């Protein structure tokens, strides 16, 4: 998966958040007062970082004693990086085949993410197989098959209303026999509050493990970045019940509320691994805390220094 470069994409990341900070801090200049820090905390809450994370970030910036707004923003970027989880964020694709289960509420961008991921993996020289195991949504099966064709990769699908776990078992048998090195599974969506759904997804994971030792190697939870704190409820239910190994944040361009990344990672301790920035087949990027922090506040410092 492509590693995004800040200079190339930061003007596409959470533009709502960046504009919020640019407008909110334009009136301030050094030396910085209590009013500045109060405004900064309010802006972070408005960006859906949550009250606890916002207060923690502002206190950390205050301790650094930055003399001007541009330097305060640089300090804020550093503290955002520090608050995100440390360690590697790459996908675990060492097994052959590697099995990636993808979860998420319908509408979050789960199927689209799988299609984009398949495209990126194929471009990197891998041979992915897409599995349409969302058998409760006929349109979901059709959507995944369309994405497979668009990405130029092979796919298998269950029949509408069929057993999702059985589809996954058969697909993993086929993947081993036909030497696919990656299996991307689109699982059932709907609401995370439906107990039967969560139990069904647990069954899919168990069956994958029976079909292939060590599977699933990744369990990715797809969240809609435009929902902000509302995504946290989904993350709590899916992440805790299904043992998610990584997050995928979709729709992180435009009106996305960038601060929600901080709140979700802080509470659940699940790393963000991928970020989606549009509908194009190549619009999926590896997530890196440093460039994300710069993307959130890019242009804020220069805007403030020239106002």
Question: Any overview of this molecule?
Answer:
The protein is an alpha/beta fold and 307 residues long. The chain folds into two domains: 6-86 and 296-305, SRP54, nucleotide-binding domain (Four Helix Bundle (Hemerythrin (Met), subunit A), Up-down Bundle), CATH 1.20.120.140; 98-287, P-loop containing nucleotide triphosphate hydrolases (Rossmann fold), CATH 3.40.50. The protein contains 13 helices and eight strands. It has helices at 6-9, 15-25, 34-46, 51-64, 69-83, 110-123, 138-151, 164-177, 195-211, 230-242, 260-268, 289-297, 300-305; strands at residues 98-103, 128-132, 154-157, 182-186, 218-224, 246-250, 272-276, 284-286. An eight-stranded mixed β-sheet has the order 3-2-4-1-5-6-7-8, sandwiched between helices. α4 packs across α5 and α6 runs parallel beside α7 (138-151). The two termini are 39 Å apart.
Secondary-structure blueprint of this entry?
Blueprint: H1 6-9, H2 15-25, H3 34-46, H4 51-64, H5 69-83, E1 98-103, H6 110-123, E2 128-132, H7 138-151, E3 154-157, H8 164-177, E4 182-186, H9 195-211, E5 218-224, H10 230-242, E6 246-250, H11 260-268, E7 272-276, E8 284-286, H12 289-297, H13 300-305
Parallel strand pairs: 1-4, 1-5, 2-3, 2-4, 5-6, 6-7
Antiparallel strand pairs: 7-8
């Amino acid at each position: 998966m492509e590693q995004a470069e800040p200079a190339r994409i930061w003007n596409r990341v959470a533009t709502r958040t960046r504009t919020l900070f640019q407008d909110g801090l334009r009136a301030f200049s050094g030396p910085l007062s209590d009013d500045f820090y109060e405004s900064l905390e309010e802006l972070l809450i408005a960006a859906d970082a949550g009250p606890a994370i916002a207060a923690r970030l502002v206190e950390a910036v205050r301790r650094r004693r930055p003399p001007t707004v541009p330097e305060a923003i640089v300090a804020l970027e550093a503290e955002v990086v520090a608050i995100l989880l440390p360690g590697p964020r790459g996908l675990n694709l060492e097994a052959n085949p590697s099995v990636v289960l993808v979860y998420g509420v319908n509408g979050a961008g789960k199927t689209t993410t799988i299609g984009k991921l398949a495209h990126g993996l194929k471009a990197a020289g891998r041979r992915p197989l897409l599995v349409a195991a969302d058998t409760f949504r006929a349109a979901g099966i059709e959507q995944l098959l369309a994405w497979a064709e668009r990405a130029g990769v092979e796919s298998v699908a269950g029949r509408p209303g069929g057993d999702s776990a059985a589809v996954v078992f058969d697909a993993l048998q086929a993947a081993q026999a036909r030497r696919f090195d990656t299996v991307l599974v689109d699982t059932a969506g709907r609401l995370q509050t439906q107990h039967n759904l969560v139990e069904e997804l647990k069954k899919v994971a168990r069956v994958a493990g029976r079909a292939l030792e060590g599977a699933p190697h990744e369990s990715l939870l797809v969240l809609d970045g435009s929902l902000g704190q509302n995504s946290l409820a989904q993350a709590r239910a899916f992440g805790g019940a299904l043992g998610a190994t990584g997050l995928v944040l979709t729709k992180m361009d435009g009106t996305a509320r960038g601060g929600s990344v901080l709140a979700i990672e802080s509470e659940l301790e699940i790393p963000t691994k991928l970020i989606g920035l549009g509908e194009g087949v190549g619009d999926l990027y590896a997530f890196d805390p440093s460039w994300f922090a710069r993307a959130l506040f890019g242009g804020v410092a220069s805007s403030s220094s020239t106002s």
